[in-house]
Amino acid sequence: MPSRVRIKICGITRLEDARAAIAAGADALGFVFYPPSPRYVSPDSAAAIIRELPPFVTTVGLVVNPQFDEVQQLLKAVPLSLLQFHGEESNEFCTQFRHPWIKALAIKPDSDIAAMMAAYHDASGILLDAWHPDLKGGTGQSFNWTDFPSDSHMPLILAGGLNPENVAGAVRMTRPYAVDVSGGVEVSKGIKSAELINAFIAAVNAGVVAV
Asked: Which residue among 7, 94, 157, 206 is the one 20 to 30 A from 176 at the CA level?
């Protein structure tokens, strides 16, 4: 178990939410560049938020099955620490931008997680999320946490259905490198609650201490 579990607050659309997350102790902020998502933020808006952030905050850009040129333009417009590929992109596609990246995998009950992870050997980390037939992240659903790999050499990020009430137990069960939350700290889609963010981060830390 790591001495602490890193925390990403995803689906940031407002500067005040970014500031609340950082003040509460979040390590990373996620920006969704996927227009069908209710948490979509334009590159210009994301860049404006990031310009106001203090140093040492990781900024993550979530994309879903983008075209090559789209990613290039995004990286030019927004100072992102990491790319997060949330579709069916290949390892080769993700690697060609020469920019750090993580790969989100949608986990079904019969998924061969080890084989899925092995296909993305160049990733900086793997995010394990619940599968949904229509949505790409932010589903509010979780997968079976007992399926979470316990012996991976790669940093693993737990996502899907996390909230202040269940995240301590999830951390104790899975012992992840990091956790990722979006809807679990919102008052409405794309609008975060500072109180829920604080409660979530306190619960993550409590889960680590309890192990």
From this structure: 94
Regarding pTM above 0.90, the answer is yes
In a domain, 67, yes or no: yes
Q: Catalytic site residue 129?
A: yes
DSSP 155-199: -EEEESS--TTTHHHHHHHH--SEEEESGGGEEETTEE-HHHHHH
| CATH number for 128 | 3.20.20.70
Provide the residue range defining the domain that includes 106: 6-210
Residues β-bridged to residue 137: none
Contact, 21 vs 197, CB < 8 A?
Answer: yes
Q: Which of 44, 129, 134, 151 is catalytic?
A: 129
Q: How many domains does the chain have?
A: 1
**Residues 76-88 pLDDT 10s:** 999 999 999 999 9
Please tell me which residue in 10, 17, 94, 180 is annotated as part of the active site.
10
Active site residue 122: no
